[in-house]
Amino acid sequence: MPSITREDVAHLAALARLALSEDELDHYAGQLDVILSAVASISEVAADDIPPTTHAVPVVNVFRDDVVRPSLDREALLDAAPAAEDGRFRVPRILDEE
Amino acid sequence: MAVTDLTRATAVEIAALVASRDVSAVEVTQAHLDRIASVEDSVHAFLHVDVDGALEQARAVDHATASGSSPGPLAGVPLALKDVLVQTGVPTTCGSKILEGWLPPYDATVVKRLRAAGVVILGKTNMDEFAMGSSTENSAYGPTHNPWDLDRIPGGSSGGSAAAVAAYEAPLAIGTDTGGSIRQPAAVTGIVGAKPTYGGVSRYGLVAFSSSLDQAGPFARNVLDTALLHAAIAGYDEFDSTSINAPVPDVVAAAQGADVRGMRIGVVRELSGEGYQPSVQARFDEAVELLRQAGAEVVEVSCPAFDYALGAYYLIAPSECSSNLARFDAMRYGIRVGDDGENGAEEVMRLTRDAGFGPEVKRRIILGTYALSSGYYDAYYGQAQKVRTLITRDFEAAWASVDVLVSPTTPTEAFRIGERADDPVAMYKADLCTLPSSLYGGPAMSVPVGLGDEGLPVGLQVMAPVMADDRIYRVGAAIESMLTDRWGGPLLQKAVAL
Amino acid sequence: MATLSHTGDVLMDYDDVMANFDPVLGLEVHVELGTASKMFCGCATEFGAEPNTQVCPTCLGLPGSLPVLNRTAVESAIRIGLALNCSIAPWCRFARKNYFYPDMPKNFQTSQYDEPICFEGWLDVEIETDEGPRTFRVEIERAHMEEDTGKSLHVGGATGRIHGADFSLVDYNRAGIPLIEIVTKPVAGTGKYAPEVARAYVGALRELLRALEVSDVKMEQGSLRCDANVSLRPTPESPLGTRTETKNVNSLRSVERAVRFEMQRQATRLSAGEVVVQETRHWHEDTGVTTAGRIKSDAEDYRYFPEPDLVPVAPAAEWVEELRGTLPEPPAERRRRLATEWGINDLEMQSVINAGAVELVLATITAGADSAAARKWWMGEIARRANDDGVELESLPITALQVAQVDAMVTSGRLNDKLARQVIDGVLAGEGEPEAVADARGLQIVSDDGPLLEAVKAAIESNADAAQKIRDGKIQAVGALVGAVMKTTRGQADAGRARELILAELGASEGA
Description:
The complex is a heterotrimer of chains A (98), B (498) and C (512). Chain A has four helices and three strands. With 98 residues, chain A is mainly alpha-helical. Chain B has one domain (3-304, 394-494): Amidase signature (AS) domain (Amidase signature (AS) enzymes), CATH 3.90.1300.10. Chain B has 17 helices and eleven strands. Chain B has helices at 3-8, 11-19, 25-43, 51-66, 109-116, 159-166, 183-189, 223-233, 251-257, 278-293, 309-324, 345-356, 359-372, 378-399, 424-428, 435-440, 469-487; strands at 46-49, 78-82, 120-125, 172-177, 192-195, 215-220, 264-268, 297-301, 404-408, 444-451, 457-463. In chain B, strand 10 and strand 11 (457-463) form a beta hairpin. In chain B, helix 8 (223-233) runs antiparallel to helix 9, helix 9 (251-257) runs parallel beside helix 17 (469-487) and helix 11 (309-324) packs across helix 14. Chain B is globular, with a radius of gyration of 21 Å. With 512 residues, chain C is an alpha+beta fold. Chain C has three domains: 14-319, no CATH class; 355-441, no CATH class; 449-505, Arc Repressor Mutant, subunit A (Orthogonal Bundle). Chain C has 16 helices and 15 strands. In chain C, the strands form three sheets. Chain C has a nine-stranded mixed β-sheet. In chain C, a hairpin with a 4-residue loop joins strand 13 and strand 14 (289-292).
């Protein structure tokens, strides 16, 4: 398995919206490399014909009826928000176009 | 009854006293609040003690009992709640700075069921940030200290809950277990802790770390109390699509039964050897011998895929958590950093997450982002899910010849605070024994089986098939019964008084 | 069509585009389902509610919240798939599409990735070509389930658009509303009719969804959204060119115009030796151009993985067949039947579909008008108004019932067509119901002979030459006199009756 570089970590941090410092980039790159080596063993073990498991108990078709239930009180919600205005959550400028 | 007696009582004893009105729930609660006040400076199990809320709940229980309604088996019993579960109007931080000051607008289903049972929630306990860790050192609010030795870790991520019970601050606690975070703290603090079958307890209101692995579960100082708490919180919840729509196994009856005659018990070969402290192994072997003497048939079972559990877990859990934690972006709740009128939303998100998350969380987010990124999914996350299938097959093969599997809960006694902080992989190895059943989804419990060479608790882990939660209680109760007889009381009484 | 793009470069003429390139289309349509509650929670889905009053822990993505799937949304998804001749997956899952945006409460969208619930279908659409009507089979790649996002208002800055805004205000009422995304396979072989095919496809899809009753499919309200993908290649045998995706296409008209513009824009660049940038573009209906949208710094790595909080959806064969039984008449059959009933051909029928008028015409017929009259009004006067205002027919403030009432007033002789158009104007202007408008404006054909005779006599007096011609036998001159009568009566005369009276007065008869 390829080792993780500083650039890789910077790219991943950007994807995950984490602003890492230069020191952190180095530090994590090193640590992640170690972790990946530790987990490398799993690449050898499972053959292609083994199906993946995503749920412990294999259940299907869990639905709810299309029925309206009460919503949350807006007051409480917006009080807990970092910023609110006119009944909406106020967020800083979104620089990109939709 | 004297104050210290109430804090030493079991949940069963407290419930009986409250039901018969020999003691009021308020008295019980106050006794525990006093205990918390006297030891918290040393232990730091709690992040928030809800004095007013607890007394109000206690009063409600007393009122109900007075007006003749028959209380449930846990009415009036105090409990410590891991800070990863939401409780309306009560600070919930998940051990993280990013949620500092957040008051949830809703209750977790577990909380609703506890209230319905008349349990008195004393407060929120400390934990590794977002449940990531095995020592509670990753809490943004400082570590919790093991009541057995304050320089030692209480385990993690549910270290606060375990320490609260071990320090007699509460007879019951709720923790969560994703890779061992109930069982391992129970082992290193000398108490009982169980992870129910995945889907056995609702995750609605449980702040998600690794969605396909997380489970809330009970802590107590004995197996029967643990079973009663398990029964109170388990069961189908329509708000959780992954919750099991089937009756809860009768764990209380199993705990009261405690009979292992004729049971077939498998010792997992792969969960021993290098890295396992010799005295931990010894206590385990002695306990297994006791089971043999009690009439169980004990055999060795090989589960080769268990060797890959660590690798699979440390790909699956970080992957799911990297996605689960994306919502913490300063837009709707939690802290907001850098909103100076100049910075755009993206920058504020970055600054907030950088300031709000600790190093272990960041490490796992990056690892998870990597494991899911295009080009790597098949090699990492996809492959890890296949390993999960192999582990499941090992369990299912084992059930053909045994009823339960046993192993040490964790390879060592509690290590010192700070000892493994710079060595993530060493830290991860604390979960070696608990990871396989997490990945499989089956129930597992840790029961105290003695002290190691450093005078610290050792736990034995019992694992059972999916939905056979009663079996872990049966075996756990049997072990406890035999050992408590030998010790003349619970293991905890050997701890130095705080 | 403008030949100058907004940048000042000369936009290549459409014929030149077609002489040098072959277009390939892709259409992605998002349908907001009309379920009572959201996809994964019980919040209401009412349009226009006060901001953030239809939210709960789940659709807000609060820590600890979990989704539970709406059964009716699944039914709608299956029915849509069946109506589009798709296969229904016997087993499928949801997946998380991970990206950050303030209107996304969880910063991932619960959607479907490589396991859509419906796949491999088709929809036939008809367009008018130089050689007559032609049917195109648009192949459907997939239809899958997902959830909608919240809505942001951008504040500060000049236009309320994102650029230059100081901050944004977010309303999460829309977050979690069920969406079905329908994706076509690349649509090739349309040649110069690409814009028309695009429009016809969206129009036909809209009719189909309306007939299924799964959504109110109002493009201007956002319950039907279209993204148009366009690419050009030198010849049909060439490999596919770079495509752009155009959003903000809010009407059928916009679909056609946007596709045409993109073809021209791309051709202009390619012919100038430049490359087409693979990007998302934004359509502007007012200026008739697309502009470059968000430049994504990290090419989207959505890191899809199966949603662990939901279990797979495995619709039983019996359930699917039961749902198949609830499908309405297939659109092609319905088109043919209605066309026959209305006595029109396929091409005329497609025009009605393209105008979004089928249901309106049907409702007008139900309210009492005959089919020709209903079509005449909706496809004529009212369609013209919709075009002028740049909106869809159905969003004009006039109902099928009102149109039927206007038509009834014409049939009964109270109004002629010209007066009827004025009544329609009045209804659209909000003056009230047709009868009330006619009364208030004093619109009424004068067919009472008394006043009409007055007007006739006055017209004869002031048009002596024409009158004489008629007496001499040149009946065709009567037109001028009728015109004069209409003028003096402000158009309210019954023209036919006026003509009779004029001829009678002058002692002439039609037979001459």
